[in-house]
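Exercise 7. Given the encoded structure of a 331-residue chain, write a plausible sequence.
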């Protein structure tokens, strides 16, 4: 849980995060366009202890040596049996086996690579001079928010989980809304995806109607002008408005995005209104009219086709809808 005594005010936290994103956007080599995130790779640690497969006994762990990895000396317990050399770094919960002691030590070093790369990614995001050597759940609120921007998307996901645990405190909400409006930080798309994932349960995060309206407006703004759909963030934004929030205000925002300047925003809205009608059937006629208008007037031929197809699926009450089309550069 959050230490409420030492926690900053929500508005102060949001300002501190905006200073972080501004600095990242102005750093040497930064680009105005967002970085395209790679898919999330779950961090499964500790790895399977190989000594269990060879029935190494507790009494077999009688040796001691060390191995240096990225300049750090790691103490290694060793066991030499008829099945070979075994080593384990207890501090990292990592084991390896080799035909020789040297082979085992090389395997130990190689096996720690995912751990070190994760820690380096955290250090880089937080601006630490030394390797991060703690637990994400113990970090301060601002550092958790910063980690939503981590290039390692599994790190960002773990930070998201920790933030979500404290949704009802409303501490993070202004900063999360600011992330949706971020147009500067290079890795903003994956951070925005994390926020949208949390905002699937928006009432848990907002203290009042005014804050809920601000969040809906920020989602609409994200869809309205986005030039890309990296990490499927804009697609998710539509789903959050039409398939999760599902209020009159969210519905109005989503339908308006069908005519947005952003073609990825329009595509997202054309898809998401299908789910909006599932939850708010009273919106059916309004949604169909908006789609039929887009089918005539959208500047993208593929979106004219998509709008018409979605209008027909909704009008006919189909349980499934046509597949969302891709733009040429996405194929």
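Solution.
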């Amino acid at each position: 849980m959050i230490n409420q005594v030492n926690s900053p005010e929500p508005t102060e936290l949001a300002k501190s995060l905006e200073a972080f994103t501004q600095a990242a956007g102005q750093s040497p080599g930064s680009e105005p366009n967002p970085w395209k995130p790679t898919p999330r790779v779950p961090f499964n640690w500790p790895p399977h202890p190989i000594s269990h497969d060879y029935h190494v006994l507790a009494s077999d762990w009688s040796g001691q040596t060390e191995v240096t990895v990225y300049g750090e000396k790691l103490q290694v317990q060793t066991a030499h049996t008829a099945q070979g050399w075994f080593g384990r770094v207890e501090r990292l919960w990592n084991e390896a086996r080799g035909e020789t002691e040297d082979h085992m030590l090389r395997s130990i070093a190689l096996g720690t690579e995912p751990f070190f790369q994760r820690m380096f990614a955290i250090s880089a995001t937080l601006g630490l001079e030394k390797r991060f050597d703690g637990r994400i759940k113990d970090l301060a609120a601002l550092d958790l928010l910063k980690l939503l921007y981590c290039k390692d998307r599994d790190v960002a996901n773990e930070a998201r989980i920790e933030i979500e645990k404290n949704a009802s405190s409303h501490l993070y909400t202004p900063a999360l809304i600011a992330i949706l409006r971020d147009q500067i930080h290079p890795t903003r798309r994956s951070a925005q995806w994390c926020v949208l994932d949390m905002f699937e349960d928006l009432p848990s995060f907002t203290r009042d109607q005014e804050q809920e309206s601000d969040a809906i407006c920020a989602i609409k703004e994200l869809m309205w002008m986005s030039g890309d759909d990296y990490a499927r963030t804009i697609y998710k934004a539509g789903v959050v408005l039409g398939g999760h929030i599902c209020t009159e205000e969210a519905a109005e925002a989503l339908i308006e995005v069908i005519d947005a300047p952003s073609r990825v925003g329009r595509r997202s809205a054309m898809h998401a209104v299908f789910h909006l009608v599932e939850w708010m059937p009273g919106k059916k006629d309004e949604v169909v009219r908006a789609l039929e208008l887009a089918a005539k007037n959208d500047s993208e031929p593929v979106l004219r086709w998509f709008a018409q197809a979605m209008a027909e699926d909704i009008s006919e009450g189909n349980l499934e809808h046509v597949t969302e089309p891709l733009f040429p550069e996405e194929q």
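Remark. The two ends are 44 Å apart (CA to CA). Students should compare their own answers with the one above.
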